[in-house]
Amino acid sequence: MNTTTAPKRIKVITGNAAAAIAAKLARPDVVAAYPITPQTEVIEQISTFHASGEMDCELITVEGENSAMNAVMAASLAGGRVFTASSSWGLVFMYDAVLAVAGARAPVVMVNVNRETPGIIAVSSGQQDMISTRDAGWIFLIAEDCQEVLDLVLQAYRLAEDYDIQLPVMVHYDGFFLSYLSEGVDIPEQETVDRFLSVLKDQPKRTVLTPGRKLGVGSHGILGGYMELRHKHVTAMERSKAKFEEIDREFDGIFGRTYGGQVEEYRTDDADMVLVGSGSMCGTIKSVIDDQREKGVRIGLVKIRMYRPFPHQALVAALKGKKAIGVVDRSLAFGFDGGPIYTELKAFETRLDGAQLISFIDGIANTDITKTNVEKMIRMTGDLADGKDVPEVTWVSYPDANTKGEK
Amino acid sequence: MAEKKKGRLTKVLDYLKHDDPFSKGVAFCPGCGLELLLRFIPRVLGNDIVITGTPSCSAPVLLGQNNQSWHTLSYFGTLMTGAAANATGLVRYYRKAGIDNTVVCFNGDGTANDIGFGNLSGAAERNEPFIYICYDNEGYMNTGIQKSGTTPFGATTTTTPYGTVSRGKNLRRMNLGLKMAMNKIPYTATATLSDLDDLARKLLKAKEAKERGFCFLHVFAPCPTGWGADPADTIEICRQAVKTNYFPLWEAENGRIRMTKTVKKPKPVNTYTKLMKKFNHMTEADHVILQDDVDYEYCLLGGLSVLEAECQLPVSVKDQGETS
């Protein structure tokens, strides 16, 4: 993040509070949500805003996440701006509606506070919930810090509701690490946010379900009709990449902050080696990179901000010609040895002009991705660049995985 | 209806103030109770209603395919799991935007009583301002006649078949209407196709009551295909269901139950069951169990309606008019 103007309204708030404040600033018509750790604070804050009259929306305190997604889907198709928030099991419980929202091209905006999903007591961080829903047809954005949570929610509305896009957007941020982390956040004025979002008002009106209007919503038909809608969906996803870059630039002009669009590059220009990461781990990685740079290690970071659609063009452009790339995943890809982002990036390996890839799995189950861990990753990536024998996959915080054949 | 002589008009025709928005030949089975109900609702409530519905027998007709449609209503086809939540989203946005609306959440018993009961219950708790209509054909007919929570004791379905160790469904049906009335929502009612004036009056009452919150209509809608009945007998089946107290007609305002039709001398339940094949295999002992179930539910209803007459409700419940 580059700050070009001095922030004026800094408050120390959590990532959850940043999400709630962003939702308030976007002035949604309908909010529906159900509590789940670590997202609960988001809807508590929104309920407080609603109770005090600060937030003029219809607040639906539903009896389960499935209803939250169904309610905002319908409200969105009726013409409303909507918001919801969830996490892990909640996201899974609303999954049929998550798919239907995408199918209906309803511009729903939600935050998902990433959490693991192997069983009920594993209340811990990890991006497995995001990975499990990655092919739903939603746009997925990932925030690194509390400021970016706020900024991405605002950008998400511009992206979702854009007449050329009309797709749901999910803003992800790491549960526990960002949800409960308090840090300084520049909270913009309502007027500034209104100005940023006002572009949408000047666009053509999307088709909505209104009483008395002869309109059927929900059918994809069969054969050709179905394929036409799906193909349009796929091309809208692809269009969203350039649109997101455009929105990021415009955001910079209004708020004085830019992140670089689909991916953020940190000290990559002259780097021989690059780590690819996403979410809250990137702060630690940047800090280690600064230390290593002083020692002469030519290392950089590519941070994935847009995960769906997969920003392969931007990634290839940033990574092409590097010697070695370490991909850090906070989740698993069952059936593959490496992490999910690693395996996806691997598909574009031939376009990287010889750059080699290795996979690091870390940060799941609430383990910290510590500076020591990042140093280890950089060391191993350096070994790969030097042509040494390096294992393809390393569970950084679980050495046993790298030595034992477990059952 | 204008061609008929005034003296010959039955009461129900007076309620049919709007056009039938459906084309004449639609893809329902002969004698379908659902079709009669579906055509009836917009003729009474108007063609500006917004209907939401789910995968079911109603879906092929309500949804249409590609750019072709069987009707001219606003329709939102959605998932069985979240039907009432979808209707909630619509009415909440319309309220926020100041758009007058009558949203009819139209589902079968599988959605209402089984897979979508959680969100139906949630909508009732939050007193959401729309009309939920369940057409009860006592099973999953669209997927090929499987049992649901409202399938009665003894009935054969493809998942409760008759066999050497099975005599059809060996569980009692659930009383969906009563469950909903217990939520003290502004309006709950049962209705069926043999008593159309009663149904029409209840639809209009629901339209008025939805200004105060959630309304639920439980409509008995026979399925000749699934039940093994003569398509010509659909209305007779409804009539006998009422006359045997198998499906009593009542309404409840804020949970206070009132019978809208009392049967002076109820007939034994086998006058109803003999009209279809799904009960064919039942022995006399089986019929005693089914009769007992019918009698018990009717007693419960009678008791609750007496209770209402004698019981002084708190003012806040009486005047319940707020929506969350």
Quick summary:
Chain A is of the alpha/beta class and 407 residues long. Chain A has helices at residues 15-25, 40-51, 65-77, 88-93, 95-103, 128-132, 146-160, 190-197, 223-255, 281-294, 312-319, 340-346, 371-385, 400-403, and strands spanning 2-3, 10-14, 30-33, 58-61, 82-86, 109-114, 139-142, 169-174, 182-186, 216-217, 257-258, 263-266, 273-277, 299-304, 306-308, 324-329, 356-361, 393-395.
Your description of this structure?
Chain A is an alpha/beta fold and 407 residues long. Chain A contains 14 helices and 18 strands. Chain A has helices at residues 15-25, 40-51, 65-77, 88-93, 95-103, 128-132, 146-160, 190-197, 223-255, 281-294, 312-319, 340-346, 371-385, 400-403, and strands at residues 2-3, 10-14, 30-33, 58-61, 82-86, 109-114, 139-142, 169-174, 182-186, 216-217, 257-258, 263-266, 273-277, 299-304, 306-308, 324-329, 356-361, 393-395. In chain A, the strands form four sheets. Chain A has a seven-stranded mixed sheet, with helices on both faces. A six-stranded mixed sheet of chain A has the order 12-14-13-16-17-18, with helices on both faces. A two-stranded antiparallel ribbon of chain A has the order 1-11. In chain A, strand 13, helix 10 and strand 14 (299-304) form a beta-alpha-beta unit. The longest helix of chain A has 33 residues, at 223-255. Chain A is globular, with a radius of gyration of 21 Å. The model of chain A has no long low-confidence stretch (mean pLDDT 95). By secondary structure, chain B is an alpha/beta fold. Chain B has one domain (10-318): Rossmann fold, CATH 3.40.50. In chain B, the strands form two sheets. Chain B has an eight-stranded mixed sheet, sandwiched between helices. A two-stranded antiparallel sheet of chain B has the order 5-6. In chain B, strand 5 and strand 6 form a beta hairpin. In chain B, helix 2 (33-45) crosses helix 8 and helix 4 runs parallel beside helix 6 (117-125). The longest helix of chain B is centred in the last third of the chain and has 27 residues, at 284-310. Chain B is globular and about 60 Å long. At the A-B interface, strand 4, helix 3, helix 5 and strand 10 of A face strand 2, helix 4 and helix 6 of B. Strand 10 (216-217) of chain A pairs parallel with strand 2 of chain B.
